[in-house]
Design brief:
7 strands, 9 helices
């Protein structure tokens, strides 16, 4: 059985200045966005569309604002509204963790829309380009959650080789759920989506496929995580993460059916 190492959330502190692991993970995600974005725009259909490294750098500026503001507001609104209403100053303490992925995704969507308006690019064109790159930020964020000993998993069998005791919770063996989510919701989705996005797809199809893949994986990994809250839906207990993922799957799947049928009809004309 493993024991969570419980590292100090602060890497280094000099007077009032401190570098936190959580912030470093976000910075890592942004750097990977640029590195793999440069690889992605070399794909023939994206190169033909005129995407350049300068476009990536500009989009990152919008994306950083969108993901930080959206993720924090999502945490406040979706998960702990009563707490933050009583402690409004805590809303700005993002270095302590507490960032909602669903909120961050909405922030990125809004940032992509603003970027497209200001640069003469279609919204679907922008989101199809950046969606696979968003996975890197998700992976980095979940690793940050693990380092901060956040989002602990449900109690697991002591015979599970990677069952882990979280000393800040109790002495029971638990699933290391942030690592599950980094792998399945992040890495597995990234690989599948990257393969899918290598070829030119109908407008919006890459983003829609991400909604489906991420939603399905998130519903699966939520089974191993202690939920922020649960509700009863059709005699089933549904966690907050699953509840927010269901509309993602519905929207993504509906759009994929619509756009491929439309493409097929146009192909017969």
């Amino acid at each position: 059985m493993l024991i969570h190492p419980m590292p100090d959330p602060t890497i280094i502190a000099i007077g009032p200045f401190a570098i936190q692991w959580y912030g470093l993970m976000y910075l890592t995600g942004f750097l990977l966005f640029i590195i793999f974005g440069r690889i992605r725009i070399r794909q023939p259909h994206l190169a033909a569309a005129g995407w350049t490294p300068k476009h990536l750098e500009d989009m990152l500026f919008y994306g950083v604002l969108g993901v930080i503001i959206g993720a924090r507001l999502g945490e406040v609104i979706f998960y702990h509204p009563a707490y933050f209403l009583a402690h409004p100053w805590e809303i700005f303490a993002i270095w302590k963790g507490g960032m909602s992925y669903h909120g961050g995704m909405l922030g990125v969507v809004f940032a992509a829309w603003i970027y497209g308006l200001r640069n003469g690019r279609g919204f679907l064109e922008v989101v199809d380009l950046v969606t696979p790159l968003v996975c890197f930020g998700y992976i980095a964020g979940r690793i940050g959650n693990f380092i901060n000993a956040e989002l602990h998993g449900k109690v697991a069998s002591a015979t599970l080789p990677w069952a882990m005791i979280w000393p800040n919770v109790d002495l029971l063996p638990r699933h290391p759920s942030p690592l599950y989510q980094a792998f399945f919701d992040g890495f597995v989705v990234l690989v599948l989506l990257w393969i899918y996005a290598r070829k030119q797809r109908p407008p919006g199809a890459v983003a829609a496929m991400y909604l489906v893949l991420y939603g399905v994986c998130r519903i699966f990994t939520e089974h191993f995580r202690v939920p922020d809250y649960e509700i009863s839906l059709a005699f089933l207990s549904v966690s907050s993460g699953q509840l927010l993922s269901i509309p993602m799957i519905m929207v993504g799947a509906t759009y994929l059916v619509f756009i491929y049928r439309k493409t097929a009809r146009q192909g017969h004309l």
